[in-house]
Design goal:
By secondary structure, this protein is mainly α. Helices cover 57% and strands 7% of the residues. It has helices at 26-30, 50-62, 73-86, 90-107, 113-123, 129-141, 143-146, 150-158, 160-172; strands spanning 13-17, 20-24, 42-44. β1 and β2 form a beta hairpin. α3 (73-86) runs antiparallel to α4. The longest helix is centred in the middle third of the chain and has 18 residues, at 90-107.
Amino acid sequence: LNRYFNADTFADAVVRCNGKEFKVHRLVLSSQSEFFETAAGLVELGEADDSVIEAMLRFMYCFDYNNIHGVSTMIFNAQVYSLSDKYMIPALKDLAKEKFRSAINTGWAMDDFPLTVAEVYSSTPEDDGGLRDLAVKVADTNIKRLLQNEQFRDLLKKSPGFAADMVISMSSNK
């Protein structure tokens, strides 16, 4: 299927996002997502970043994706996770969670960790602990060092959901 990604050959639909168009095959998309089962010839997905849409579509053809656009790997995987939930692609959601786990375990000390947590808490439903639980676990494990980061302290003030989850996690560790 890889060779048919964004190729004219047998393409029967177009996904458009912020002016960028991807030639797609409805059979490929609808086999992995209920959302695309009723897709017509043109599907407009203008609300998401086109690199995240591209990752979603690439996954549907190649069963993998990469962050090739220079964005924070942690944030990118969180965005892919959120998009996979929205468009009902469970296999992509699982892969994005694993890629997020790997990225956050190695990248928690980076400056974009607070931005990543903010992205996770703003883009996932409250009852979806997939990425939230991972972010809390990493933050709890590394709390002493993270509290030295002003952006992290600001995050605790601005994200009551994350702060509450941190308190619950820290109190259960005692």
